[in-house]
Design the sequence.
C-alpha cells in the first residue's frame, strides 16, 4: 500500500511523519525547502536537531522501517516542509 503526505515541521516539537505498521515500510523523504542551511532532522519520538541525521535542502533520504517502527521529524529553522512517500510491504 502506497501513501503520500506533506508535513510542516516545528523546530522544537517532534512531528510523527510515518505511523508504525505491522509490516516493513520503504520510506522516501524529501526536504521541500530549497534555501541553504534549512535542514529536516529525522529520528525517534525524541528527535532533536542535535541527536539526529538531517536531510539537506531539496534532497531525499530513503530508509526502511521495521515492523512497529514509526518516524518523527523536526526542522531547523522552524516551519520547513517535508514530503513523505511510504510503501508498506
Sequence:
Amino acid at each position: 500500500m502506497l501513501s503520500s503526505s506533506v508535513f510542516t515541521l516545528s523546530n522544537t516539537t517532534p512531528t510523527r511523519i510515518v505511523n508504525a505498521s505491522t509490516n516493513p515500510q520503504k520510506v522516501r523523504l524529501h526536504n521541500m525547502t530549497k534555501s541553504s542551511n534549512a535542514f529536516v532532522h529525522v529520528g525517534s519520538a525524541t528527535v532533536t536537531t542535535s541527536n539526529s541525521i538531517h536531510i539537506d535542502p531539496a534532497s531525499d533520504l530513503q530508509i526502511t522501517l521495521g515492523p512497529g517502527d514509526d518516524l518523527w521529524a523536526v526542522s531547523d529553522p522552524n516551519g520547513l516542509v517535508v514530503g513523505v512517500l511510504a510503501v508498506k510491504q
Remarks:
- Strands lie at 2-8, 15-18, 25-31, 39-43, 53-55, 60-65, 71-76, 81-88.
- The two ends are 7 Å apart (CA to CA).
- The mean pLDDT is 97.
